[in-house]
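Run folding on both entries below.
>entry_1
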Amino acid sequence: MKNRYAIVSMLLLITSQASAEQYAIHLDTSESSNLGMYKALSEHGELYTVKATQGYTTVLLGPYENKHMAGETLNRVRVSGHYGAFITKHKM
């Protein structure tokens, strides 16, 4: 019986981590996202895209486990000239 509870607890933990919300830096949303223009930022995290609405694509940098880490990165991103960047939260 103990093993069953341990397995259920592990599955709940894995499920909650898989659907956990994480933070990212929102760099751009456009019809044609060019990751190349953000290549220099890849030293601060992974560059990736997600589909937005109406055929648009969003370029993100991250993910970060907490808002503090994302905030520190956001400061560096803005110093490098991406003043419109902001923190966003989404499920991974």
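>entry_2
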Amino acid sequence: MGHKRVRPGERIAMVELMMEMNSDWCLFWPFAHADHMARRVCEAANGPKPSSDYECCHSCNNNLCINKNHLRWGTKKDNAGDRKKKRNHLTVTIKFK
């Protein structure tokens, strides 16, 4: 099963819809490239990315979410710190005998 194709204008319509919604729930982009849509919604909600050092951070730690209330610009360090605070990261310990 492949990804559905997005028709022209659907991305713009979805960004406009996300700007109107005010929810605490995660909202999902049903097609491929959710990370691209999250950046578009983040930009619409928070203005342009401050610099190339910034990325779209999700306060919900759900990379598929495009809820404007969950998105903000932050550095990779900010994003890693958020994941660590919420324990949404993988820690592997290897012990040798």
